[in-house]
Amino acid sequence: MVVGTLTTVYADSRVAKTMSHTLKVHHSLVTAHSTNSKKKSGSAHDGTAAKNTKPNASQPVLAGLQTASCTIFPPKNPYLSQALTPELRKLAQYEQLCNGSLFSRTSFFVETPSTVSDARSSANDIASRLKEYDQFGIKPLVFMEPTSNGSNLDLSQYANGAYDSALDAYYAALKSQGITDGMMGIWVLLPEGNLPEWSSVDPGIYAKVVTRTAQLQKKYFPASQVSLMLDSETYPATGSWDNGSYTSLVPYVQNIPSGLIDSFGVQGFPWAAPSSEGSTYYDPNTYLRLDFAEQAAHSLGIQSLWVNTGTFHQMYANQAGETVTVSPLDRQTMLNGVIKQVNSAKSQGFSVAIHLFAENKASVSEGTDWSYWQLQPSNDADTAVFTTFVHDATASNIPLWLFDTDEH
After folding, report:
1. Residue 7 lies in a domain
2. I want to staple 207 with a disulfide (CB 3.0 to 4.6 A). Which of 128, 170, 255, 350 is the partner?
3. pLDDT digits (tens, 9 = 90+) for 353-369
4. Is the pTM above the cut of 0.90?
């Protein structure tokens, strides 16, 4: 899936996931799906209606959209467009559009070292990246995936300590490179551990893996932050995208020692079948289950949550006759539904951030465009969807995080 996957789009009975990126090739994820039967929703939530936001005269009122400017932020970071890190270079476009620093974190992906030699080499690369984030004052969100040199690690061995020496060397090398607790940002361990892209979906193995890794991270960086992220949909067996269901995530976290985990994320994305089949899943109350994250947080004894989501402009863009295009109004309605869920969780005392996946993957195998503009932001409806979302999320005091990159 990825060595960096953020978007999981769901299939009815089969999903072929493609996540591509290695330690030195940091671009992320999306999934290619195929479908044969009706998807289970598993949701008891009400539907979501678009929010009424007063139109802003400087923005285009298109296709029934509510529109607003996003120029409501602290000063933007100069020279981001010259950064070495592709995610930081891409961030420059967003800051130019909104004339300020709108995202409090941006993300990238790393592999998990399996040998001491790999650990030291990888740590050199990641230390340079973390230092550049620090230079620009951007906080990182680091997805640490259970792969090494492009291959999945054996999670059963991982759970039993097979990679402890490599991980210890990795964190020690980061420390020796001058990385501080604050520069580490948030590290997301074994992301999507309930999806069959890795070598196990067993909750007991998952808990042991993240516990070992978090303990080693905090051995060297005690004040650094560790997070978890699971998908809204859980699968019963590795290697098969059959029989996914929307069920509690508590079994994955209930045996993790208290005090190790600082935040919990839940992932959910809209999905559509090829145009010849016609099925669509555009209700965030179905595909994004923040209520599951709340239950997991209660089990962990934490109050900090985040969601990983996005909306697509086109899916199957590389398949003639099967391309599905989502209207700007539908994209806005989905994002409004996400904000509504987040505000509901906040009213219960949780702090909640939104991590937006917004990379254009139309030209690669996934064939899905998650972006809100093509080469540059423009005065069109999809860009207006983005600026209005940013405006409304910020008005609700919801921190925004981003994955996008100019690395292709």
Report:
1. no
2. 255
3. 999 999 999 999 999 99
4. no
